[in-house]
Amino acid sequence: MAAWGSMTGARTKTANITEAQACAAPFSGFGSERFLPLTFLDAHDVTAFMSIEQDLATIAAQEKLLCFERFDEGSAWEIGTRLKAAAEKRGAVLAIDVSLAGRTVFSYAMPGTSPNNADWLRRKRNTVQQFQRSSYGFGLQLERDKADLFGKFGLSLSDYAIHGGSFPVRVLGVGVIGAITISGLPQREDHKLVVAVLAEFLGKPLGELAID
How far is it, in rounded angstroms, from Cα 59 to Cα 11? Predict the structure, then answer.
């Protein structure tokens, strides 16, 4: 099977294409949605709002940076095993799923996980596939907009999760073709672990794009 991002079996040529040009732009808003002016918020709300705004900007930059030139089943295996090793190193218990073109191509449940983790994987992955951005970034977007999945999109929480831990597989010049998903840590830590492993795999240091 030819890798996504390849043309007739050859690697996509990207020497003259910047990531910003080739990557599909991450989802950044909800149409003509208008937000409450900061003058109507108290000091605590303003601080929370600005913190979310900063996280959203950082996550959008992460989604733009962490693109693949090509992606196939071998890529999924290597990323999945790296996630497993990273979890073991920190003593975490995770369920891991990597999907490609609507099918799971890597799946591993560490001892101590449960069917509940598998359901979290499914619902986070559905969110990435539906909105083509990270589940954590999308959840923060909804929080900032004071919106909910059912009210805005008619989607049920039984099938979609807006918690961190699923990240889009975006191929240069192609777009989103899959998702890398974990469950087991607090949502922000799930997101951070996936991003850290992806950055290392792609050889793209996060620098200031790492979130606390």
Answer: 27
Distance CA 141, CA 53 (A): 9
Which string of DSSP letters, residue by residue, matches the chain?
Answer: -PPBTEETTEEPP-TT--HHHHSPPPP---TT-----GGGS-HHHHHHHHHHHHHHHHHHHHHHHS-BS-B-HHHHHHHHHHHHHHHHHTT---EEEEEETTEEEEEEE-TT--HHHHHHHHHHHHHHHHHSS-HHHHHHHHHHHT--HHHHH---TTT---SS-EEEEEETTTEEEEEEEEESS-HHHHHHHHHHHHHHHHT---GGG---
Can you list the domains of the chain with their CATH numbers?
A: 42-203 (3.30.450.150)
Give the integer Cα–Cα distance in Å for 186 and 53. Answer: 20
Per-residue pLDDT tens, the chain, 212 aa: give them. Answer: 556 664 323 333 223 323 333 354 444 444 333 334 444 445 445 556 678 999 999 999 999 999 999 999 999 999 999 999 999 999 999 999 999 999 999 999 999 999 999 999 999 999 999 999 999 999 999 999 999 999 999 999 999 999 999 999 999 999 999 999 999 999 999 999 999 999 999 999 999 899 98
If one counts every other C-beta atom within 10 angstroms of the C-beta of residue 142, the result is 16
Give me the residue label for tokens 């040009």: 21
